[in-house]
């Protein structure tokens, strides 16, 4: 998929690998720049943890990623890799986050190489979700 001048992103699911729920197993990139976002947390601009439990925190992370992308003139389809961390061992929680992300205005970012992990704990007290993002420009 040609994007900005000099940027090509190819996403594929090679034969022999399992079907995915929307992401691609392989993302091949030719780009002039790579941008690495720090893991985006569910913190509001004030530094306070977003209210609303897992759903509210996920919404805040989405907003934070969109702001970070805009700061480098990037869009969700410029994302080439995501790692999603959810502080839960419950697969229903992981599935809820995955669904919310894909149904959001950031959804295209998750059609690329993505990893979804349930973890024991994240960096801030009460934090339930964090997303690591790599962008090709």
From TrEMBL:
Taxonomic source organism: Kribbella amoyensis
One Pfam family this sequence matches: Ribonuc_L-PSP
InterPro entries, per the entry: RutC-like_sf, YjgF/YER057c/UK114
Protein name per its UniProtKB record: Enamine deaminase RidA (YjgF/YER057c/UK114 family)
Family according to the record: Belongs to the RutC family.
Organism domain of life: Bacteria
GO CC field: cytosol
A single GO molecular function term of this UniProt record: deaminase activity
């Amino acid at each position: 998929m040609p994007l900005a001048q000099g940027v090509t992103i190819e996403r594929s699911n090679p034969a022999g690998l399992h079907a995915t729920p929307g992401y691609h197993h392989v993302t091949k990139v030719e780009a002039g720049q790579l941008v690495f976002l720090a893991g985006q947390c569910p913190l509001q601009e004030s530094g306070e943890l977003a209210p609303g439990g897992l759903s509210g925190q996920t919404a805040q992370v989405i907003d934070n990623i969109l702001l970070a992308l805009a700061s480098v003139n990037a869009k969700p389809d410029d994302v080439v890799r995501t790692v999603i961390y959810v502080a839960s061992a419950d697969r229903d929680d992981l599935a809820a986050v995955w669904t919310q992300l894909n149904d959001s205005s950031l959804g295209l970012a998750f059609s690329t190489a993505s990893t979804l992990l349930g973890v024991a704990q994240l960096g801030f007290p009460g934090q339930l979700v964090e997303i690591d993002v790599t962008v090709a420009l």
